[in-house]
Design a protein that fits this description.
Layout: H1 8-36, H2 39-55, H3 57-60, H4 68-83, H5 86-96, H6 107-118, H7 121-132, H8 137-144, H9 148-165, H10 182-186
Helix pairs in contact: 1-2, 1-4, 1-7, 2-4, 7-8, 7-9, 8-9
């Protein structure tokens, strides 16, 4: 069977997309993982977002636009839509136990992910975009389709909620419920 020959422009698009994917995929998974707390779900959502980006690649990059915010937004929305289906997965894990090949995570990371999971999805999303990716409030507002004021309000409420759950235990170094740490309080 013959394969359709593509021209130099198509080859450039493929190279451009491949470079974009290689440069951004791991960090995008990390961002969505921070939003969801589920690595497998984050990987699936991000993979689907990149597939959709490839299908629209010409439109996403047509005027020199950065396709990364679009990919992040689509991945986050895909992940959020699957949160409703996680009840059965959680029940199965309780029934069968956790996977045996999952690497150990630090107590701080586990505490942070648990605290992030307790936030409402919109607060969690702005915390991850602003603090994990260091995006300015204005860009977070554009990506989430809200105003700068709404982002600031969500950040403030999220910091307060996280602060009520996270602090450094001086004796063990483990996270525990208590007032907010200086690090979180002073960031952004």
């Amino acid at each position: 069977m013959g394969q359709r020959r593509e021209g130099p422009a198509a080859a450039r698009r493929v190279e451009e997309f491949d470079a974009f994917y290689a440069a951004t995929a791991k960090r995008t998974v990390a961002v969505v993982y921070a939003m969801t707390g589920d690595l497998a779900e984050a990987e699936d959502a991000v993979q689907e977002a990149y597939v959709r980006a490839w299908q629209r690649w010409g439109k996403l990059t047509g005027e020199g636009d950065d396709p990364l915010p679009w990919v992040r937004t689509v991945a986050a929305r895909l992940a959020i839509s699957t949160w409703r289906r996680t009840r059965n997965r959680v029940r199965a894990q309780f029934r069968h136990g956790p996977q045996t090949d999952v690497p150990e995570l630090s107590a701080d990371r586990v505490a942070l992910v648990a605290a992030l999971r307790e936030l409402p999805p919109r607060q969690r999303q702005v915390v991850v975009l602003h603090h994990l990716l260091d995006l300015p409030v204005e860009q977070v507002a554009r990506e989430t389709g809200t105003t700068n004021g709404a982002v600031r309000t969500r950040l403030s409420r999220a910091r307060k909620a996280l602060g009520a759950r996270l602090t450094r235990d001086e004796d063990t170094g483990a996270a525990r419920s208590a007032p907010i740490t200086e690090e979180v309080a002073n960031h952004g």
